[in-house]
Structure formats: C-alpha cells, structure tokens
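Structure tokens
________________
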Amino acid sequence: MKNVVSPVLALALTASAAFAGGPVVVEEEPVVEAAQPRSGWIVPVIVGLVVLCAVACGNDDDTASPTT
C-alpha cells in the first residue's frame, strides 16, 4: 500500500503546481513618442495676415499736407 500511495501523492502535488499559473501572456508596451506642438505655423500666419491687411487697407487719414 505504501508503494502506491507515495508516487500518487508526489504526482498529485507536482501536477497541481504545474498548472497553477495558467499561460503567461507578455504584452508589449506601446512606444510613446513626444508630441510636437502643432501651433508652430498659426502665429506666423496670423501675423502675416495682419501685415497684409495693413498694407492693403492703406492710410485713411483725411488730413492732407498743405501744398505751397
């Protein structure tokens, strides 16, 4: 009887430890890239539009220089 119980007990202890954790799933970390600011072109475009408007509108002063 002892000859049968020892191997069965050893097999039962090792079998439960073999399946104890389930499969190992390794997930890769996503690569994080530094985001570049997208507002790099907005300020020059707005300044350009203001300068273009100032040139196109011209001078609206009604005072004329006296001619002699």
Observations:
- The mean pLDDT is 76.
- The helical segments are 2-18, 42-57.
- DSSP finds two helices and no strands in the chain.
